[in-house]
Design a protein that fits this description.
Strand order of the largest sheet: 3-2-1-4-6-5-7
Order of helices and strands: HEHEHEHEHEHEHHHEHHHHHEEE
Shape: globular
CATH superfamily: Spore Coat Polysaccharide Biosynthesis Protein SpsA, Chain A
Radius of gyration: 21 Å
Number of strands: 10
CATH class: Alpha Beta
Number of domains: 1
Helix content: 40-55%
Length: 382
C-alpha cells in the first residue's frame, strides 16, 4: 500500500521516445476488439503498433484490419510469423516482430489485456532513468458476469500481484505489460536468449537479473483483464502457470509448495480438528484460536491489496465493489488450489497453451508436441 501510494504521488516524467508496441495475437479473446481499441487510443505522442500472429487465416486478423481502417492516423502493421519450430509460438512471434520495429523502446502487451489511455506513457516514463532495465505492470482479472469461478481466478491471481513492489531485484516482468529500451534489449541479446524458450517474460526476467538490471514495477500500469472462465479453464490456467514457474524459477515453485503445505496443514487441518473436538466434547479453544488468527490475517492482507488496487483502477469502481467479498473471503481456497497446482507441476511438464501442446524440457528447450483439438478462440493467455 505504501509503495502504491508513493508511486501514484510521484510526478510523471516527460520521457516520451518513439515506441514500438508489440501485440501478439492468436484466436479471438473475449471482447478482443475492445481490448485492441485501447492500443489505438493511447495518450502518447509517437508510437507504432506491431501486431503479430502465426497464420494469415487467424481470426484475430479481421478484427485488427477493421480497427486499422478506423484509426488510420495510428501507424500499425500485421506481421505473419509462421509456425514455431523450436520455441513457444508466442516467443517465436515476438522474435519475428522485433525485426519489423523502429521504436527506441519496445513495449509488449497481451491481447487479453485492456490498458487505460495513459498506460503507455506511464509504462515508458520510468525508463528516463537509464539504470532501469525494464518497467512492468501486471494484470487484475475482472469477471464480466461475476460468476464464482471467474472471481476465484481473480483471487488466485491477486496473490501474485502483491509480490511486486519496491524491491527491484525481486520484481519480475509480466509479458502482458512490459517496456524496455531497444539498446537494453539488444545488449541482453534477448532475441537469441528467447530461442528455445516458452515463457517470454520469465526469460526476460532471468536475463535482466543476470546483468543486475533492476525491474521497476509501475502501479499505474496495473491492467484490467476482463474475461469469464469455467472450472476446467481455471485448473488449466493456474496449473500451467505453476508448471512454467517450476521450469523457469524452481525456487519460487518450491516456496509456493512449502507455503501451501504449511497453510493447508494449519488452516484446513485446524478447522477439521475444531469440528472433531466439538463433536466429541473436548476443548477446542486453541485450534480455533489458531484458525481464526490465520483467517483474520488473511482477510486483512486481502483487504489491503484490494484497497491498493482501487487507487489505481479507478475506471472499474463497479467491478471492484462486486469483487470485494470474493477477494476477502475466497483467499483461503486459493491456497488450497496453489497446493494442487504445485503438486501437479511436480509430476508433469506438459502444457496446452493457445491450442498448442508443449513439453517444457528446460528453460531453454521447448518441445512442440502437437496442436490441441481444443478451440483457440477463447483460450486464456498467460
Amino acid at each position: 500500500m505504501r509503495y502504491v501510494k508513493s508511486e501514484l504521488d510521484k510526478p510523471l516524467s516527460e520521457f516520451t521516445p518513439y515506441v514500438s508496441v508489440i501485440a501478439p495475437c492468436r484466436g479471438l479473446d473475449q471482447d478482443l476488439k475492445e481490448n485492441l481499441i485501447k492500443l489505438f487510443v493511447q495518450d502518447y505522442p509517437g508510437y507504432e503498433i506491431v501486431f503479430v500472429t502465426d497464420s494469415e487465416t487467424d481470426k484475430s486478423i479481421a478484427v485488427i484490419k477493421e480497427l486499422q481502417k478506423d484509426f488510420l492516423h495510428i501507424d500499425s502493421k500485421i506481421i505473419i510469423a509462421g509456425q514455431a519450430k523450436e520455441s513457444g509460438q508466442k516467443v517465436h512471434n515476438l522474435r519475428e516482430a522485433i525485426k519489423h520495429t523502429k521504436g527506441d523502446v519496445f513495449v509488449f502487451v497481451d491481447s487479453d489485456a485492456r490498458p487505460n489511455e495513459k498506460w503507455l506513457k506511464n509504462l515508458v516514463a520510468p525508463l528516463k532513468d537509464e539504470s532501469i532495465g525494464a518497467v512492468t505492470g501486471y494484470r487484475w482479472f475482472f469477471s464480466s458476469k461475476g460468476n464464482f469461478v471467474s472471481e476465484f481466478r481473480s483471487v488466485w491471481n491477486a496473490s501474485i500481484t502483491s509480490q511486486l513492489g519496491a524491491n527491484t531485484k525481486k520484481n519480475f516482468c509480466w509479458g502482458g505489460s512490459t517496456a524496455i529500451r531497444r539498446k537494453t534489449f539488444e545488449k541482453l541479446n534477448m532475441t537469441e536468449q528467447w530461442r528455445g524458450t516458452l515463457s517470454d517474460d520469465f526469460a526476460l526476467t532471468r536475463a535482466l537479473q543476470s546483468k543486475s538490471l533492476p525491474i521497476h514495477f509501475a502501479p499505474r500500469c496495473l491492467t484490467a483483464s476482463i474475461e469469464d472462465c469455467g472450472f476446467s479453464e481455471l485448473l488449466e490456467f493456474t496449473t500451467r502457470q505453476m508448471k512454467i514457474t517450476r521450469v523457469y524459477a524452481p525456487h519460487l515453485w518450491k516456496a509456493a509448495l512449502i507455503g501451501s503445505i504449511l497453510f493447508v496443514g494449519s488452516f484446513y487441518v485446524g478447522t477439521v480438528l475444531v469440528i472433531v473436538r466439538v463433536l466429541i466434547g473436548i476443548s477446542f479453544v486453541l485450534p480455533l484460536a489458531i484458525v481464526l488468527l490465520l483467517f483474520v490475517l488473511g482477510v486483512g492482507k486481502a483487504w489491503v491489496r484490494w484497497h491498493a488496487v482501487t487507487l489505481v483502477l479507478t475506471d472499474y469502481k463497479t467491478e471492484l465493489r462486486r469483487s470485494f467479498l470474493p477477494q476477502i473471503i475466497l483467499w483461503f481456497l486459493g491456497s488450497g488450489l496453489y497446493l494442487y497446482n504445485c503438486i501437479a507441476a511436480g509430476f508433469s511438464q506438459l502444457i496446452v497453451w493457445r491450442g498448442i501442446k508443449y513439453e517444457l524440457k528446460s528453460p531453454t528447450e521447448t518441445v512442440i508436441m502437437s496442436p490441441s483439438q481444443k478451440k483457440t478462440d477463447c483460450i486464456q493467455e498467460k
